[in-house]
Design brief:
It comes from Plasmodium vivax (malaria parasite P. vivax). This protein is mostly helical. The chain is built from 44 helices and 6 strands. It folds into 4 domains: 244 residues, no CATH class; 216 residues, no CATH class; 264 residues, no CATH class; 82 residues. Helix 3 packs across helix 7 and helix 10 packs parallel to helix 13.
Length: 1055
Amino acid sequence: MHSYRDLANTAQDQKKFLDECIFIVKEQSFYMKQALENGSLRDTLKHASNMLCELRTSQLSPKYYYELYMLIFQELQHLDTFINDKKKHKKRFIDIYESVQHAGNIIPRLYLLIIVGRNYIKNKDIKAKYILKDMTELCKGIQNPLRGLFLRYFLIQMCKDRIPDTGSEYEEAGGGNIDDAFEFLLSNFYESIKLWSRMSDKVVMKLSPGQDEQTLHNNRNKVLREKMDVKMLVGSNLVRMSQLEGMTRQYYIEKCLPKLLQNLSTINDSLIQQYIFESIVQVFSDECHIYTLDILLNAIQKINSSLDFKGILITLLKRLRCFIESNRFEVPKEVDIFSLFYEHLVLYVHRTLDSYEGGKGTYSLAFQQDGQKFPPRDAAAEHCKGDGEKRAANSGHTANTANTANAANTAPNCKIIKSADAKGPPGEEKRTPNEATYYGGATHQGGSNKAANYGNLPRGTHRRCSHEEKNQRNDEDEEFVENVVKMLQVLYEFIFLCIRIYDDVITISKLFELPYMIASNVNLSNDVLCEQIISIIVLPFNYLGLSALKGKNMQALLASVTSQKHKKKLSLDIIDAIIECKNKAIVYRDVEEILSYISPIFNEDVRRGADLVEDPHKREVHQRDGYQRDGYQRDGHQRDSHQADLFNPENGAITYAAKKMCKFFHIITNTDDIDERYNICMLFYKHIENGPYLVHLLPTIVFTMLHLVTTITNLAPSSRRKSQSRQDQPFEKREHPDERPRDDNTHDEHTRDGNTPDGHTHDGHTHDGHTVDEHTHDEHTFDDLHSDDRHSDDRHSGDPFLEEKLKQYNLYVKNILKFIHTNLLCVSSQIPMLALKLFLHSAVVVNNYERFVQAHPFLSFENLEAICYEFITQPLIIYEEDINISSQQYSCIIWITGILCSHITLLQNENYENIALKLTQHANKLLKKKDQCLAILACSHIYWENRKYRNSAKVLECLQKCIKNAEVAVQSNNDNVILFLFLLQKYVYYYEAENIEITEDSVHYLLHICQEEFSRETCDAGFKQEFLQTVKYVHAKKESSNAFAKIGLDASLLR
């Protein structure tokens, strides 16, 4: 009978033949069921045997053979049920067991034997171990690999619940024990892997004239795929082993694993070995693996040299990590997972790097002659580095002639040495250009040339390669890259596991020695390799945060990524990892280091699109020349009204990256140490000041700095209480000596182009008491506003340490205010609305800080009032020059009004009145009369809510302007009549607040207008409801007090 490989059947032919087999199976199954109904055991076995004969075929591939097997398996369940019922067939099981062995064909005979034997065991007429052993031996009669594997799979499936396991009913009365159950499964497992290994992995066919090598290659791959399709049949034995109740940890360690490895060592097929190892790792418990790590790792190391050990290690490491994450406290202390894996991983890294044989590797093996054993964990790093000054005199010791079969034995006594190292022994023979070697694309010529591109030698250094040689070399390069990537994946899982187990920095610091060894020996211009290195670098940041920088070789790994594309990915991935990390310990030195590594992303070139980012040169010129003021008018740069919104998510990658950077900034500044927070803010700004992200990140930095000033402001009460004891000082000293407090000169480093903030401030604003366009302002620059006396008041007798710290904090505040003013001026044309809000928020912080200065007489901060005035006038300048949309203008007036009314008390009366007057004028110039009316109505609170600046006459003046604007607005649109209702409510408010300028006549006038509108049939329902609520409020006040006694109301409105 011909093999399906010989016939080279197509899928269509296979399906056709399968249909024929299925037809026969269904036919015989029908007759078998009829015989079952008639109770005829003889006819039943006859038709069952005919049905099972279809499994004798060799013309089906494993895929189609499995379909046929499953159909027959389902039909045999009817036979199994019939034989199990002794009342139906009225035969002894021993007689049936013997009778089925007389079947003419061996395939039906053994399948029927298994069914009868299964029920024979259940009847307990004979001990289970004898029947199981007998069936196992009889199954050896099938030596065809495919048919034999399915037969043994059927045996395991049918007898898996008839095994004399510990505690089972078949263990009683000498039916067997765990040893017999395990021996049954082990025998079938061993026979199965022998059958599997005999499945041909070569295409037994000659090429026809029209075929080529590619066809043969494709056919061979097809056969190999079919060979792996039956792996489940073998793995089922291991699955049942792991399910044994008697498979305890001790039994697994002493008997199970050693026998499995012994049987596996007799098979010289790397595919089978790899699958069995992976199955062992997957099916047995994690506890068993933890206690047998040494045995398992040694077995993997000593097995077939072509075995893909990386996939096995990855599976094992993942399982252990999941187990430890859920059962961390159950890990035995006597098992040093780090040492066990590390010693083997060193060998595997060497094996991976030395796998490029035939003189093509840049690195070769030099053996230690002293027979030194593998170094301990503490010395592993030194061992891994290799000794570049020792080579074997005998060239037979190089990687070209090293046998990979004994690599596991020689690797502990070998070191990786650069074969083209210029620092070799003086007597070493130099290589010729034709002998220039390359390693993973890292080419070397003589002793100094570095690699250009992966897998390509420099031009002129070698002879011209043929097309076949180039293809072969490319295939070897791809294979090497794949091997290195898998090795890096193993190291990734190893580092991941150790991070979840160990907390000590010493152990964690050793985790990056092996990745660094690989990174330093391969060309990271390859995208796949570099991305895998990046994943390893980023991993510790997910769990250790900035503490990951303490790992040995971590800095070198970070520096190994050189291309701009990969640096950007590394930077973003590190930022993401730190954001997700729960360990948020912040130290200035760690922040300084990490910023130096991720700094490329801050200065990357980004697509400007619709002028997303202002040109840095323009910003510099704009900063130097474009901010001279004359009153509230700004010369120089004019904002483009069509400029795109910088914070629109549709702007793409730059907004996406900026969002991550803002989160990252909040994390690195999340510290209670004021000195560190201030220095980190300044350091972060230094990295972004010349990049495209300044305008996106500056608001975040400004808010953080203002929060820092607020924190300092709130120190006043606690500092007084705690200054009694030096041990309870509210301020901690700086942990690092280089984190020195910055003085005024230090801040100059953060101003662009060496410019002081003088150039960013307007000239002195002259004024007189009546001209609203000119404002009272001392003729000082912003630096002059910060001029201070750093000497403390000699009369103050307090804690000297506390005084010095507060003086330092006071200096921080000065620098922060200068910083905010300087930088907001630079970006105000790009983000006018946000800059306006930031200026207002800064003014509030300055106003509050004045109380802190007054609470500490030894502090000196001159011109705080002028600084506050500057921060309030800048929003008005932005309003005039950069905000052109009417709705935004109205919102700005409301914001400024709210700040002045509720938070500002520091300004002098004259300055406050000038700002209020200017704001009222802006409100009166809005585009719509309705907006004018509402804005001026809001401005009236400026003259009333703040008691320090209260002016009843100005309130009345604003209300009268509102009435005029409302009258004009109603003429153009009658819907604006609701403005009179708003005015009525405001008049009622001020009248109740006892504003002497508000009279009853004004209230009556507005009541009359609103009542007329209320009585109209076309009056809006909303207006009616609002008016009634106002009338009811006034009426309630009339009854409860005398305040509204003179206000007359129409009683009919209250009915």
